[in-house]
Amino acid sequence: MGAETPQQYLDAAPEPGRLWLTEFWAHVEQRCPDLPLVMFRSTPMFKFTDSYLKGYVMFTAAKGHFSAHAIDFDLVAAAQQSITGAFGGKGSVSVKYANTDAKPELTQFVDDVLRRHGYLN
Description:
This protein is of the alpha+beta class. It has four helices and five strands. It has helices at residues 6-12, 15-31, 73-82, 103-116, and strands at 37-40, 43-47, 56-61, 65-70, 92-96. The protein has a five-stranded antiparallel β-sheet with strand order 1-2-3-4-5. The longest helix is centred in the first third of the chain and has 17 residues, at 15-31.
């Protein structure tokens, strides 16, 4: 059974992932205080409209890496290219937990997604 709340997701995440999740959730909440963190398929997500297909930003914590997810595939691809050591699929930018140098650029990716969807100037 999957998580039903963001706190359950956080509690089940691997230890190094908890810090990353907390940091990135706080970043979005600080930048966009009216954007709710909702559950989507047992994973917390910041969904921009009535459908995730219209935009979102989501973070996941796996055993060995952290990922930021968005449906803006061009921004995802650009971030994967620009962040040293990044990898991921079509909709995610992933970095190993040891790659803390990636945090500023990963934060920039999140801001780019938020900006594209009208949440930042």
